[in-house]
Amino acid sequence: MIVELGHFALVISLVVSLLVSVVPVYGVMKRDAALMALAPIGTLVVFGLVAIAFAVLTHAHFTSDFSVMNVWQNSHSLVPAIYKISGVWGNHEGSMMLWLLILTLFSAMVAAFSSNLPVRLRTLVLAVQGWIAAAFSLFIVLTSNPFIRLDPAPVEGQDLNPVLQDVGLAIHPPLLYLGYVGFSVCFSFAVAALIEGRIDAAWARWVRPWALGAWAFLTLGIAMGSYWAYYELGWGGWWFWDPVENASFMPWLAGTALLHSALVMEKRDALKIWTILLSILTFSLSLLGTFLVRSGVLTSVHAFASDPTRGIFILVLLLLFIGGALSLFAFRAGTLRAGGLFAPISREGALVLNNLILTVATASVLIGTLYPMLMETLTGEKISVGAPFFNLSFGLLMVPLLIVLPFGPLLAWKRADLAGASQRLFVAVLAALAVALAMYYAENGGPVMAILGLAAGFWIVFGALADLWGRAGFRRVATDQAFRRLFGLPRSAFGTALAHLGFGVTVIGIVAVSAFATETVTETKPGGVIDAGGYQLRFDGMKDAKGPNYTESRAHFTISRGGATVGDVWSSKRIYVARQMPTTEAGILTFGLSQLYVSLGDPTPDGGIVVRIWWKPTILCIWLGAVIMAVGGFVSLSDRRLRVGAPRRAANRGALAPGLEAAE
Amino acid sequence: MTRKQKRLAVIGGGVAFIMAAVFLVMFAFGQSVSFFYVPGDLAKANVQPGTRIRLGGLVATGSVVRGQGSTVTFSVTDTTGTLVPVTYTGILPDLFREGQGVVAEGVFGADGKLFTADTVLAKHDEKYMPKDVADRLKQQGEWRGEEARTP
Which residue ranges run through the membrane (chain B) (predicted)? Predict the structure, then answer.
């Protein structure tokens, strides 16, 4: 009965979404305030209904109601409670429900917190959100209904895929979706602005908080997914350039570009058309990602769905939304007033360069991801474009970005003094080189290029600090006054510095791991000692153990360095009972920011076992950097200027006299 | 510089960057795209030793030899019955089994017979077979359907 209630709520939400998509637009055309007022109310109702449907599905999973096909296929009575809940989105139908829930959550937030928007714009934004919600509800109801019942109900479920039974997976999809579905708001704002045919700096001010929030969540989501793949899949890799990873990475790259171009639009009333286009492209890439992951066109660790009707359905949605939005753009962009001019050496110039590099990099990832599919469709030839392609093309494209990034925040708007900025960054360059050399020698060599890579990472970190240092005026004014000025800086200044610093930290982690990681594959017997990454691992033997829904054989290692024991670690092979599926649970021991990663292989006939050990120096920097970036995003979001709903005065002024904004 | 020259310089710089990126992408493609073959294709495909390919098929029953430290040898086969010997050093995926689908990435040795794999991917879970392998086996009429998920 409860399940039918959820099903019912989902169907009604579809109907209400359709209503929200059509009636308020008619209201806008007829200038009928009553009809336009339907949009926020309807949006909130849709969110309520979808939340009910989602709660019902969660309830069915939590109580192991195997009469629901989705629960039967993806759960088991012995699965621990937390994975019963995360199992809701550990499958195709449930993850689409999560997608819809988050989409409608964002729509509801727009409805609730945007009373300061011009009413026509707000109505149109909500209507566009309504189109997306209606399309995806229709998709769920027609092709991916999670509420289908089984009769008679099976006694036991088929179990959740064991690699998904992990805390990382419980958190990863919600974060990821908060990110890439969050960009739908930017898309809706862009489409609404195009329909209205009028955009100004205030538009960027409204859109930027949404882009910032979505971007910060997406950053966390991608980092979480990467860490999950690292420790759960047992291969010791943290990024595989897997199409599913690329699917979330492309919106991130485009979203990063969007954040920066919206800044130019907000401050200088320039790059308007480009910003609108980027808003459309960013969410288009999110939709493309959804298509790639959910249609089953890919083979990868995450692709659970394989049903052509779904693929075609999403493809049609994709063409409709992306094609529609881009046609609208092509049709209306010419009527938009172009923005102001600026010198190449200026903050705007730097941000344009940032956009150029990021969009080209996005394009290279897109090509590498789609090319194999295109080739197979056209010629039937099966090829694979692997990590070497992306490392080479994307990696080299990032080089100019790494070099110019610290200059950006130091340049003034309109016309800047490059020599002055270089002077201020001179110390940062020297410090970066010195630290990189020191780290290189501490790691006892490695490829010489690593020095440059590390220096690039530290250069960005020190550059971000130099920015704050310069803004506070250390050395120019009295120290206590400089500290006062530092704490008086707007939050957005700290946000920028933190996000850039985090990026530098990630770069340091990536370079250090690529250059200095060591891998040892060897066979050992109980009592044997393995040398790996400067540590000695004594294999103490195997032990059988039993978990709630698996059995495992665990190997114990005592780890010592220079004769002193520094820790111990369990590494195991599990067999999940319900699916008879083996998994490898790596043993990971953390030393500061570095990790020792122990993975078990097959037993050998003479009683030994194959062990694979990686020493991953400063690997935690990769994810730590991403967390710092996201924190930077949230700090910037908490800036008064951007606080959702706060800048009412500014918004009104912007709406009345857009010309004034540029002078600010 | 006049305003017009400045603008030209900016646009020229942008175009140059994009051109450089296009060349880079093309070059990277040339370096790292690898083709997929099943054993039956190899006779006519003329794969040069040292060219990186992906070899897919089934692990031939009884062909897996372990116990040379961490090196494993096995043969990949398909319905044509062609056997391709593969050697791999490292840890095999959890789901690597005889008679199951597998994709090995690597190169043929100088004699063109022995395939040295640096990566071995196996069926990811009980419902999933490497897609390239499944497609080819379907073509060869050798697909033992695992897609049906009827209750």
Answer: 7-29
Longest dimension (CA), chain A: 84
Confidence of residue B132 (pLDDT cuts 50, 70, 90): low
What pLDDT score was predicted for residue A658? 36
Separation of alpha carbons A212 and A637, rounded Å: 7
- Three-state secondary structure readout of A201-246: HHHHHHHHHHHHHHHHHHHHHHHHHHHHHHHHCCCCCCCCCCHHHH
C-alpha to C-alpha distance for A177 and A161, rounded to whole angstroms: 20
**Cβ–Cβ < 8 Å for A339, A265:** yes
Chain B positions touching A583 (Cβ under 8 A) are 94
Find the length of chain A. Answer: 664
Among A421, A503, A414, CA closest to A457: A503
pLDDT-derived band at A359, boundaries 50, 70, 90: very high
Q: Which residue from B73, B135, B78 is spatially nearest to B106, judged by alpha carbons?
A: B73
Sign of CA dihedral A211, A214, A220, A221: negative
Q: Where do the domains of chain B lie?
A: 1-33, 35-139
Length of chain B: 151
Residues 6+ apart with CB under 8 A from A655: A118, A200, A202
Residue of chain B whose Cα is closest to the Cα of A523: B69
CA dihedral angle for residue A467, residue A471, residue A475, residue A481, rounded to 10 degrees: -140
Q: What percent of chain B has pLDDT over 70?
A: 78
Angle at A329 between CA A266 and CA A311, to 5 degrees: 110
The minimum CA-CA distance between B111 and chain A, rounded to whole Å, is 24
Residue in chain A closest to B28 (alpha carbons) equals A389
Q: What are phi and psi of A581, to 5 degrees?
A: -110, 125
The set of residues, in sequence order, having a beta carbon less than 8 Å from that of A238 and lying 6+ positions away, is A226, A227, A229, A230, A513, A619, A622
* Model confidence, pTM: 0.89
Our CA-based measurement puts residue B128 at a distance from the nearest CA of chain A, in whole angstroms, of 8
- Please tell me the distance from the alpha carbon of residue A385 to that of residue A392, in angstroms, as a whole number: 12
CATH number of the B35-139 domain: 2.40.50.140
Tell me what pLDDT residue A485 has: 87
Domain boundaries, chain A: 1-165, 169-331+351-400, 401-516, 518-616
Query: B128 labelled as ligand-binding?
Result: yes
Is the pLDDT score of A447 beyond 90? no
Confidence grade of residue B120 (pLDDT, cut at 50, 70, 90): confident
In single-letter form, the type of residue at position A124 comes to: L
Q: What is the ipTM of this complex?
A: 0.76
* CATH tag, A1-165: 1.20.120
B31 in reach of chain A (CB within 8 A): yes
CA distance A262 to A213: 14
* A38: three-class secondary structure by DSSP: helix
SS3 A382: coil
- DSSP β-bridge partners for residue B74: B86
Helices (H), A443-576: 449-472, 479-488, 491-516
Count of pairs with CB atoms under 8 A, one residue in A, one in B: 121
Residues B30-87 have pLDDT tens digits of 877 788 888 888 877 778 888 888 888 888 888 888 766 678 899 988 878 888 999 9
- Angle value at C-alpha A327, between A323 and A331, nearest 5 degrees: 175
